[in-house]
Each structure stands twice: as structure tokens, then as C-alpha cells.
Description:
alpha+beta, single chain, globular, two-stranded antiparallel sheet
Amino acid sequence: MNRHTTLHMKKYLIFGAAMMAALPSIADDGIVVPDSTGFKFTDVTLVKTGPVKDQNKSGTCWCFASTSFLEDEIRRKTGKEIDLSEMFTVRHCYGDKADRFVRLYGESNFAAGGSVVDVNYVWDRYGAMPEEAYRGLEYGEEKHDHYELDAALSAYLKAIVSKPSSKKTLTTAWRKGIDGILDAYLGEVPETFVYEGKTYTPRSFADALGLNMNDYITITSFTHHPMYKPFSLEVPDNWLNAPHYNVPLEEMKAVVDNALDKGYSLVWAADVSEGGFKWREGYANMPKEKNADDMDGTELLRWVQLSDSDREKQKFEAKGPVEEITVTPELRQQMFDRQETTDDHGMVIVGRATDQEGNRYYKVKNSWDTNQIYGGYFYVSEPYFLAKTLSVMLNREGVPAKTLKALGL
Length: 409
């Protein structure tokens, strides 16, 4: 996920620098009472989930989201709460993406970003580790900060694919160089480790957790591919060319609603670059364009005197619920084709909610720490979800039976 790692980090810093430290009060009836945004959200359905995570200055949202989701799955199936290592997964993905980058002569995407299915890929191929056994912080920082690591890996690989040797071929040493950089920053991966008094390998640890990666599918909705057929979603960070099952737009929403009602969380890959994505204020919406016919004379005069940038900014200023756009499959496709909708961020959908006017939202857990108005959660309107979702990943048990049948699953 993330169009580019740099873009994601820039967004994180912008949002993170402005986060509010004060948390709202929560009434006994479940209504969240915000400090000053004008929204009142009532949680309607909530799935049990673990603590909010903090990816800090790293472009690894995809890993934090999918890892949190798998922790939810373990909790749902066994009742056991566990903190899994994100950096174990990130390290293996860096290595495998480097292999692919070099094999394709540098003609592929190498970045910190990834797909929500990458954690499942590593789980099947390499296993998993608990956070306490592999934190991935071997470079003098208390929180993840991958600027230097990403720059070092990128520069190294660009040098390798340029084939600077006199023979214009690759030596047998370049892969050891990648491992050396990763060891220096994230640490060597131990062959065995002790967890709760028992010795494991990454493989035996993953197997002991009782999850089957074949149980998880990724669903999307775009009109440039046939419905009810899998296709490789055309975004740079889908480096594994992972299949995404294509369903009609309203059916994608029905899948999410059904999963939440049955107690399943979902990984949400989405565009967060819209002006209506208000992380500080704890919501995301897609306001309808202002129409001159709806303004009185004074308001219209003021509106036409604004610059284009001021109009755009004012469009997304809300003091509470506003009228939002109607999202059709055609509009959604147009946004994707024009690259207005981009693969920016991975999060976890953990519930449904309404505002004080009855508008419907999804409650989402982010990985940008807890020092924000809702302690790291925010509310996404249905129009925003319909317009800006790239995909959702979930346990197939959360998918309605008729959809599974249509998909041949």
C-alpha cells in the first residue's frame, strides 16, 4: 500500500504533527461526545479488537493493519490475546521484493509499501513471531523510523541493477548485502525463540496459532474486469499480483456489513489523500459540491470571490454531518482510472456506527498511535467507503453464502 513510501510518510507526519492529545468522553449509551467537531457517533456494531498500533515513521501500514487483523482472528477463535511482530513480516518482504526487483532488471516496484495480503504470504512461506522475540529496532530508536533504511536499500539495489562490474553480470554477493542492511537495522532473525516457556521456530509458532491463510480472501469492486472473477489489482504495491475477487459495489458493502454482524473484522485498503479525510477530527466523508442555485445572494457573492484553493478547502470544512455525494460504480471507476483514488493506506474496519442524523459510518482502527480525538479510531462515511476503497480482506466465513457461491468458493 502507499503510492510511494515517501508520500505515505509525508502524510503521516502531517497528520501526526497535528493530532490532539485530549480524548472525548464516552456516554453510557455508547454515544461518543466529541470536543468540538459537531459530530456525535453512536457505535452500532463492534468487533473485539486489540490495542491501536503505531507504525510511526514507516511506510508499513499494510503490515500493521493485516497483523492487527490476524490478531483479531486469533482472539476470535481462541480467546487468546497476542502481540505479533510486524517487522518479522516486513523484513521478509523487503528481501523477497529485492529478489524480484533484481530479477526484473529494476523494472518493478521496490518500496516500503505493500499489499494487505503480504502478511498472509509471509505467514505461509516463513511463519510468524511474537513482538517480544523480534521488535525490529536495532538502530537506536524507540519507535520505527525507516527513512534511512529505505534510502539505503533503494540506493544499494539501484547500484546492483546497474551492473557496474566489468563483465556486466551480477556477482554472487549482492543478496548478502541486502541481508546485511536488514540485519543492521531490523536485527538478525533468530532460528528459535522462547515464548511462554516453550521453544519455537517461526514456522512452528505460526502453525501453533491455528490460522489457515487459505481462509482469507480479498474483495474489491471495479467495472474494468468481469464480476465474480479474480484479477490482479493494478496498483504498484501489489507486487505479488495477488488475486482480488470482483463483486458489484453494493455487494462489496454487503460483505462488510455481514462480516461485522457476525463478529469478523476486515482489513481495509483505501485512499486517504482526500480533503474529506479528517484524521484529527476523527471522520472521513465525501461532501457534495456547493451549488450556486442553493446559495443566497450574500453567500454566492462571497463564494465567487474565493480563490480556487480556498473553495476547495472550504468544501471540506464541516461542523457536523453534511450532504455527501452519491457514489455509483461508474463514478468509482472513473476515480480509479484517473488516479484520483490511489492505494495509500491500510487499516482495520472494526464496527458500524451512525451520526446524530442517522447517517451510517464504519468504525476504523488506524496505526498512527492513540494521541488523537478517538484514541486512534475514526469514522468513515458510507459514501467515502464506496468511493475510496481499494479492497477489503476478510475470513471467507464472513462473506454471505450467495456471494461465495457466485465467486465459486
